[in-house]
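Lecture 7 notes: from sequence to structure.

We start with a single chain of 474 residues. Read the sequence below before looking at the structure.
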Amino acid sequence: MKKILLLILSICILTPYIAFAENEDSQGFERKKPKKEKKEKPAVRTGWTFGILPSVAYDADKGFQYGVLANIYNFGDGSIYPEYFHSLYVEAAYTTKRSGLFRFAYDSKYLIPNHRLKIDLSYLPDALCDFYGYNGYQTVYNADWCKRKYDGYQSRAFYKSRRDLIRLAVDMDGSIGDNWYWNAGIGFLGYQIGRVNLDMLNRNKKPENMLPDIDGLYEKYVKWGILTPAEANGGWHPYLRGGLTYDSRDRQQNTHKGMNAEIFWTYNAAFGADKEYNNLMFNASFRHFVPIYKDYITFAYRLATQLTVAGNSPFYLNNYYNNLFIQRVLYDGLGGANTVRGVLRNRITAPGYAFANVEFRFTVAKFNIKKEQFAIGLNPFVDAGMVLQPYHLDRKTIEQNIAENDPDFDLSELENYVVFGDEAQIYRPHLSCGLGLKVMMNDNFVLSVDWAVPFNKRDNDGMANIYVKMGYMF
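Now the structure, written as tokens:
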């Protein structure tokens, strides 16, 4: 019932935007039309449109989100509609699972002629960031340890850590010709990592509801030497990025046909951390949109990989999926709303991985509200992800570190946390499937609700997740 109410509430957030968009545009179009014109295609958007919305969303990993956002579009003379000349975006929000979002973004293809410029400045605090260990299935996930009703309960925060991220990204591309583009970017990622702040989370709570003061998996990884001292508390990482893109899509949102292929490299420097965490990462992705029936049915799929090709990468950068242009607030690693829906966020942490998303996109209804064009879509999907470059966890070394730094730990219990040998199933794919609901306005504003369930109980205790976001996942 709660999920249904969240869905209804999320759809209702479109209403304030419509109220703003009903104002006359810069060309002075009529606000009222004769009834006989209802079936005619409305005029394209021109000039500036401005909308303020409650920032309402739901993510099974982060909880219910509440806040406010504002988006300003400039469509100019309408000659490139539904594309825009400039977009300004500001958002401030928080979630019930203590995850924050404070972001400014600018996007334009016309500020610098024949180049696209995108700027992103974000502060993303997360008091309960998911931490499930390394190499996917090699780390045991025991859901009962997080549930008070079970005798084996340890803590709701057992698979959590604290993560604060400051991000500045400036990205640009330019046309080479025939749908080919060069890409370049510069920015930095600043991480502060640590154990969960129990004092803050237990404030004003009844004794029976307080989180116990025990070591979670993150603290155990630090004591056991799996997390090195240089990466355990985060660091500052300026980066440079460059690559190539082929893009023949008909539009960026609600794409019906075309391809988008990217290859790029990111050099991450280690500022304030050990020099060993200078690294070079390689990313490649291929997105293909095949029209099946006009613009009503589209077959869409994405294949992507991220590999560490030189140096070493700290675990928190391995949980960050690199992108040429930042569209969503945060791109966590494998698992969660942006890569493998239904699988726990950050469930698969490794220096290198690949994933795939396959879905059919059905437009089931189209209608107009005054000058605004709306559509409703459904998309069944299947997602998959797997480790390509694993961490090498040596049992003997871990046992020695436990004996020295965590002597109270019973070594016979180690396999309740980490699996070794063939049983680790490091390269076994993580699979999920689900159904998405899309509410689209003017082919730019897309409210997305995805419901997904993993195939394997070890990825999320077999439970379904729901995500309420803006835009298609790809």
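The first strand starts at residue 48 and ends at 54. Keep this in mind for problem set 3.
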